[in-house]
Each structure stands twice: as structure tokens, then as C-alpha cells.
Amino acid sequence: MIQKVPIYVLILAALMGCKDGHVATLSSDKFPPVALLDTIKSAVFVQTLEHNLPEEKNVVYSPAFLYAWDELRKSGNGQVTVPDDNADLQYINKSISHRGALSGNEYTTKVELNGGTLRINASFARTMPFKEPLDTSAGGLTFLGTVVKAFGMPRYAHKVAEQIGILYYENDDRFIFHIVPEKEGDEIIFAKGFNEGRNFSEILQTVQHFTNRGKQERNKEGNNWKYSLRYGDDLLIPVMKFNYLANYKSIVGQKIFSGQYQWNIEVATQENAFVLNEHGAKVESNAKMEMKKSVAELDEVKKLELNKEFILIMKRQVARHPYFMMVVRNAGFMQPQTLNPYH
């Protein structure tokens, strides 16, 4: 018996690489004007996949800031030292999970050293059009009690279904699927019910684990209905669009060492813009850092010279009272030093 499987996509878990390009339907879907992320309370940006995720907020990651940090590392011959008590900088300086996310020709960096000021930019822009536009939903989608615009496959359509692969299905609240866009080798993965995890890295591991399980389950007898879209199934994805600029305040003002120089971070920002609708997805990310060379604070040198009155105490460590003690107020007990005129 064919079972109806309504699929509602609630969590965008991963957006993986695609080639830059401009498709009329996507290019007409412009990003909204940029706004400061501080003006909303419902979202945060994280610079790495290892950052802890706050609860009840949308969380956005892209590797642009890490690409900028890589340029800083290159300028210091591979070495950057950050404060031990700054968690954000510790995550950033240790993270390597961004490597390989994009190839070297798929993002740009710019490094400018002007006097004692170092400016670093890193950015990328990606467009991922669908092979065929997906259908819009006239009734939208009720997302956690709010009716929002949606697209997908509200009614079975073969041209839509052939772009979509179900990677894992347990029930209507726990599943993974992906959409294969126009350019081969790329995908957009959506997962619902897999948001357990302290950070994105842990969530990605869980999604991959159940994706592998799905590969094993799909060929078992009786599971074919789970891993193919059929008449009666529906699939809905919320339309999303944003463009926010984050000021990484926890980083600004921090002193770091790169190579032989100490730098004071004066600017640390990242702009993330995103569109997802029936035509496809596109994302742009731009990170900026500006820092000024500062004079390293040398450790204060000590001169422990007994050149004035002093006390001398001699005692056993376990004893409360000394067996010898004196106060020295003049040079009467001291031996004169004969100066060598040749030294």
C-alpha cells in the first residue's frame, strides 16, 4: 500500500559549493539591503563550525572570516598567537574545518599593509539554480505557528521530484533530503530533527551518519516507499532571504601576535547574504579585518639590588624564629671593591 509522506523542511543544515553564475530567475531575486545583525535578537553568526550554538536562535556560518584569518597566518609565517581567555579567537585560530569547503579559485582575498595598518578582506559569491523551478505553495507553510511563504512540491510533479533525493527517512519529524542543482557535483542538504549537538561540526557528523544509514536501508525490502517521492507525497521548504552585517565585538580590541609583530584588532566584521526560493539558492559572504601594529609591552625588568637598607634573616624552614638576623644600614660590614681602570 502506498503511504502518504508529507515532508516539511524546517532546518537548512548545509549549503555546499557550486560554481558562480547568473540565472535570470535568480539574479532578479536581489538580496535585501544590508542591516546590522545587532538590530535583531533572533539570529547570530558564528565564525567556525566548532563554535557552540546558542539555543532558540538562527545560527549562520560561512568560512569567509576563516579565509581572512588564513591570510593573517600567512603574513606571520604560519604563526598566530591569541589570548588564552578569548574563546572566539581560540576557536578561530584552531579551526581547520573550512579547508576544502571551497577551492582556491572560488573565493578571493585581499591583503593591504599601509604603514602600521593591516587590512584583510575575504569574500565569495555562489549561485545555485535548480534544474527546473520548484512549485510555490499557495497556502504557504505553517512554521512553528507562523504561516510563511514556501515552495517545493505541494503536489507531485515528476520534473521536481527527479531533482530531489531522500537520503534518510524515519518519520515526518526526522528525515534528510537533498536537492541536486543545475551544476553537477553540488547539493543542498536539508535535515529535520537533527539539531542535537553543541556545534555545527557535531550536527554534520550526525547527518552524515544517518545519510550512510539511509544508503543501507533503501535497498531493504519494504523500504522503497521511504526513499522515493510518489503521488500523494508533498515537500515544502520555507522561502528565506536575509542580508546582515555582524560586528564581532568580542574580537575587536584584542591584541594578537602574528610573526614578530603584535597587532591590535580594530575591525572584525562579516556580512552574510542569502536567498532561497523556488528558483534556487545564492549566498554572498564578505569578511573584513583591520588591525594596527602596536608596540609590544615588554615585561618590566627587575633590579634586585640591595643598595639601600635591608634585612637579612637566616632560619630553618620549619622553624618559626631565626638563628641569625640583622638590619644593614651602612657599608661598615662590606668590603670595598677595587675598580679596574681597564674594564
Instruction: Please indicate the count of domains.
Output: 1
The low-pLDDT segments are 1-24, 310-314
Helix and strand composition category: mainly beta
Overall strand count: 22
Instruction: Give the termini separation.
Output: 105 Å
Share of residues in strands: 35-45%
Radius of gyration: 31 Å
Number of helices in the DSSP assignment? 5
Major β-sheet, in short? 8 strands, mixed
Indicate the mean pLDDT. 81
> H/E element string?
EEHEEEHEHEEEEEEHEEEHEEEEEEE
Which term fits the overall shape?
Answer: elongated
Proportion in helices: 10-25%
Explained architecture:
- The structure is a single chain.
- The chain has one domain (6-294).
- Strands 3, 6, 7, 8, 17, 18, 19 and 20 form an eight-stranded mixed β-sheet that branches. Strands 1-16-12-9 form a four-stranded mixed β-sheet, with no helix packed on it. A four-stranded antiparallel β-sheet has the order 2-15-14-13, covered by helices on one side.
- It is 13% helix and 38% strand.
- It is elongated, with a radius of gyration of 31 Å.
- The longest helix is centred in the middle third of the chain and has 18 residues, at 200-217.
- The protein has 343 residues and is mainly beta.
